[in-house]
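Quick start: read one record
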Amino acid sequence: QLVESGGGSVQAGGSLRLSCAVSSSTALSDLCLAWFRQAPGKEREGVAAIGRSRNTNYLESVKGRFTISRVTAENTLYLEMNNLNPEDTAMYYCAAHLNPACTGLGVPQYNYWGQGTQVTVS
């Protein structure tokens, strides 16, 4: 089970930190984890992924502004978002899978999804 929190409304240039609480029989460090987002009328897109070795992969438009991390002891995935702009407005989802190859940003790769948390930037 994946449960997101931390979304909200911020002004352009502001920051938010999203959290995803992970309930799983598999250790967090053995999961491939990622954040996705979906804006109204647009397809869901991968924003950031973190692999088992903590290697990361980011959507080009968020590089240098967003940071994905996980804290195994907390069973929590994070997305730190800085210098937000209105184009970042979307529902943000965390996702997970157990396949061998991690850090992909393709929707079909992920089997487990949270319900999302809304981020609005004005």
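The CA atoms of residues 32 and 99 lie 8 Å apart.
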